[in-house]
Amino acid sequence: xxxxxxxxxxxxxxxxxxxxxxxxxxxxxxxxxxxxxxxxxxxxxxxxxxxxxxxxxxxxxxxxxxxxxxxxxxxxxxxxxxxxxxxxxxxxxxxxxxxxxxxxxxxxxxxxxxxxxxxxxxxxxxxxxxxxxxxxxxxxxxxxxxxxxxxxxxxxxxxxxxxxxxxxxxxxxxxxxxxxxxxxxxxxxxxxxxxxxxxxxxxxxxxxxxxxxxxxxxxxxxxxxxxxxxxxxxxxxxxxxxxxxxxxxxxxxxxxxxxxxxxxxxxxxxxxxxxxxxxxxxxxxxxxxxxxxxxxxxxxxx
Length: 302
Description:
Strand order of the largest sheet: 9-8-7-10-11-14-12-13
Radius of gyration: 18 Å
Oligomer: single chain
Helix content: 25-40%
Shape: globular
């Protein structure tokens, strides 16, 4: 009988583990494609991965109507396996895992892209990923000002109140002008802001969608930016922010940089233009973070 491990590793540990895995040669392009089954009330996702001495699979549900019922939009479990034997090791909460791993991946990218003194952060959204991204980006940059852009004034006020140590306030999409960091953490299907407003030094992370017909950033943002993705194959298959921009001619597939090249210092990131990291969420990320949590619980870090 397999055991279970609560929660996820601390954000800093997740960031370090993901960066280390890429530096050690993990190739995100080898990730098996995500399987998506459409149902009457949402999607079921199956995400398997293999890495070193581990394998694993996440089974997650995405139910857009759940928040109105007081339930999480995303739910599921993660089964961590021994790599050589594929024997089950431990079951983890996929919601906690996803919340940390998505933001941790963004932080790995932002740590390589953002200006060292980036202090002004604009966050779109008030859900779990918005909170996780504030934590993750603060782990890699000296964020002092937080501006929250969201549709619900009450939730926005509550979110802002949660960060009394920062100069935090509610804002509008126009606040991306002058931002050092912009985190798009929404379920939007159309662009959240006008990309012409972005300063040349701004780093944008967009994590809200893994669907090819949904986007959080516009063609202007993509055209102006150095664009980094987790893996080219996944981005061209699932990332609407990239897929739609390629279709319109705003960017060519060959212009995409990969996160692994960025971390290994092989990506050209010129000054004088914005930087965009588009994440769809990949199975290798879940596996690395799940293995890190398992090893932390056992006191057995690689």
